[in-house]
Every structure is written in C-alpha cells, then in structure tokens.
Amino acid sequence: MNSLTSGMIACSLYTAWSHAAVSVSDPSTAWTPMIGEYDYFADQQTGDPASDIVGAGINYGMFSTFNDNGSASATDGTLGFRLRLDDRGGNKNVIEFRRNAWIGIDADMSGSIDVFLGLNLQGNAATLGIFAPGSGTNHSPNKTTVSSTAYITYALSAANYDYRPVDYLTDGGTTNDVTPSTSGDPDYYVSFMIPFADVVSFLAGRSIQINDETPLRYISATTTQGNRLNQDLGGVNGGVTSNSAWTDLGAFTPPATIRGNLIPEPSGSILMLASLAAGCFIRRRQA
Question: Are 90 and 236 contacting, i.e. CB atoms less than 8 angstroms apart?
Fold first, then answer.
C-alpha cells in the first residue's frame, strides 16, 4: 500500500461522517454498521424471536450513528444505536416493541460496563434513558445488572425512537429476514438516540472523561427485566448467565470513536494510517 492510498483510506474514516445529520428512522445505509457475523440465530434465552438480536454478513445486526449538530464542541451532539431483531413485537393488530433494549458502554477500556443507554419498555414502562450499571463487577453477563433508577430519561418521540421492519432495498443487505427458518417474517429495527453531552456528564461523575474522539466499545442486549440481562446478548451464543468476562466471550464491539473511526491494534502501518486520519480530521476542523 503506497502513501497516497493510505492517505485516501485514512481520510475516508472521517469523511464517511461528513454527511447530513442522520435521523432515527433513516435507512441503515446512512448509519455505521458493526461489521461481521454479528449474532447467532435462535439463541434467545426465553424463545422470543422479537427479542433475538440477529445479523449476518452485510445484513448487519447493530448500527451506530452520531450527529455533531454542526458544533465544534467535542462533547455535544446526538448518539444513536440500532439493533436488528428476528421478529416483530406486539400482536396482529398492534406492532410495538414492548421489551428492553440496552447498549452497555465500556468507556475506560477496563472490561466492565460503565453506563447503559437504552429503552425500558417492558410492561407499563416507556422509558428512554441513561442508566448506571448495578453494584456488581459488571465484567461478565452474570455479574452485570442495570440500575432501576435512571440517571436521566427522555420522552419518547419520533425524533429519538423508531421501530420498523427492515427493508433491504433501502437499508442495504440482501434480505429482510436473515432467519426464515425461525419466523418467516421480516426482521425489525429498534432504534434510539440520546444526547451525547448527557453521556459525557454521567461518565464524568464516575471520573471517566470522554469526547467524540475517545475509543469506546459496546455490548448489546435485550431483556424482560429492567435490571438484569436475561434474554439475548448481541454477538454471543447464549451466555446471559455466564461468568466468563465480556472480553473472553467476544461480546464487545471493536473499539471505535462515536464518529465511527475504528481504533486498531498498534503496528507500523496502522500507526501511519492513524496519523494520516488525524491529519485529515484536523484539516476538516480548521476548514
């Protein structure tokens, strides 16, 4: 790889994010996918396909997005996540997500969950918010819990929450149903967006400082309880009662900034790409 090609690749890591602001309902082609064989099929612990996170190949199971809202600040904007589920929730007359969907963030790269973002829609609840992890070590599924009291909540609206069927013609991929043997119905996306400044503020209260260039890594989960992970884990074959560390299970997404820039393992060529990418970023900020 020559230096010109390296520079083009490195710049593309940032320029992929220089498009118009992404809405919570926009096609997945506007979001950043978590690449790879994302999750196992039919591994959901309670047998509920509407809670089974699925994804294979370019039919991605998890996405993220970030809108900086045109601000030069490194700690504001809107952070969003999207999960692909095996089937729709609700009944034949009403389609709705009536479960919990969580994104857990390892913000200090220590191997434990530092904060949860997500939806608590089980039963009569209808909460989108930021939640502290429980009092345990939070380094493995069986030792991870979610606080029953939110740090902050947001009223659900069309601007921060969306639940809809997959349409690969606009969302990308090759199919609307990656698990036809389990349901035969289209998969569904559940998506939400949260102010990044509130995430920054919560973590600062735990002596963890982050901004839009801090490497973060995520786990994803669905649950029937607001405080425990008891249904499905993204990218893990079962395992909600496992005492194995999140890192050993391979449950974390690769470290990346909220702008979607992967943080690779150091090596000569990778460090060169990172340096070039940083140069592109600085030039764009100064433009």
Answer: no
